[in-house]
């Protein structure tokens, strides 16, 4: 059994699946935090999201984001690192990810997201 999680190819990413996936507040918060983190580094560890939900709940949401093509997961030992598939999403749906993130930042307080400019692990 391969430890490398399955990711759809760029051509397999479908707009209805992406939009459906992003309609969940926890998944939207994960994407928002990944986008905010891009300024510092391109990846976050699964443990960086524990404030959003429990481990098993987060594992479910990470899988959904990966399966629809929004996020890529890299396994390194016992750690899983996630990053947005910005290049693939921008190629398939230009401006979509930026529009989603911009809209989420306007609703950050209601969605309990990190304030813009604040990154995970920043002191």
Overview of the molecule:
By secondary structure, this protein is of the alpha+beta class. 43% of the residues lie in helices and 11% in strands. It contains 5 helices and 3 strands; from the N terminus they run ααβαββαα. It has helices at 15-22, 25-37, 55-68, 86-92, 96-106; strands at 44-45, 71-76, 79-84. A 3-stranded antiparallel β-sheet has the order 1-3-2. Helix 2 crosses helix 5 (96-106). The chain is globular, with a radius of gyration of 14 Å.
List strands and helices in order, with pairings.
Elements: H1 15-22, H2 25-37, E1 44-45, H3 55-68, E2 71-76, E3 79-84, H4 86-92, H5 96-106
Antiparallel strand pairs: 1-3, 2-3
Helix pairs in contact: 2-5
Main sheet properties: 3 strands, antiparallel
Query: How much is the radius of gyration in Å?
Result: 14 Å
The amount of beta strand, in percent, is 5-15%
Measured distance between first and last alpha carbons: 39 Å
Question: Mean of the pLDDT scores?
Answer: 82
What is the global morphology? Answer: globular
Low-confidence residue ranges: 115-123
Q: Give, in order, the helices and strands.
A: HHEHEEHH
Q: What is the number of beta strands? A: 3
Q: Give the class from helix and strand content and strand pairing.
A: alpha+beta
Tally of individual helices: 5
Instruction: Give the helix proportion (percent range).
Output: 40-55%
Biggest sheet: strand arrangement:
1-3-2
């Amino acid at each position: 059994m391969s430890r490398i999680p399955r990711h759809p190819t760029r051509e397999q990413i479908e707009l209805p699946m992406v939009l459906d996936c992003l309609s969940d507040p926890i998944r939207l918060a994960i994407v928002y935090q990944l986008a905010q983190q891009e300024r510092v580094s391109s990846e976050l560890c699964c443990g960086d999201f524990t404030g959003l939900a429990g481990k098993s709940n987060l594992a479910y949401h990470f899988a959904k984001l990966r399966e629809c093509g929004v996020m890529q997961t890299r396994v390194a030992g016992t750690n899983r690192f996630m990053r947005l598939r910005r290049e693939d999403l921008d190629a398939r749906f230009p401006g979509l990810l930026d529009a989603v993130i911009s809209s989420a930042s306007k609703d950050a307080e209601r969605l309990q997201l990190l304030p813009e400019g604040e990154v995970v692990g920043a002191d």
